[in-house]
User: What shape does this take?
Amino acid sequence: MTKTKNKFRIVNKVLLIVLGIVSITSCYYDNAEELYGTGQKSCDTSVVTFSQDVSIIINNNCAFSGCHLGTNAAAGIDLSTYGSVSANATEIRNRINLPSGAVGLMPPTGRLNQCDIDKINAWIDMGAMNN
Assistant: This one.
């Protein structure tokens, strides 16, 4: 019986050690926000340029989508050049800042994301330069 008791004690000790190790190594804290971010990227509007920011937004959402490009541009407004974008800056600002679903909202497929709106507004506020 003593051999059985000793084996039982050894098995118990081994199990306790294994359980302790598993418990210690499996307990860790993962902060999903730190690991994966919040899903929102920061929107830096301190240095917005026409060539690196505004033209890309306008081309992707207004001009090259087919609405404001070429001789058949909607409302006769071709936004494929800096000159036409800067000449229409106030109208662009008014249209992109309308609430979702509002009559006249541009683009008509849905409101731009807030970062794109903020970049266009910042560019206009900085003088709508050809930079």
About this structure: Residues 50-125 form one domain.
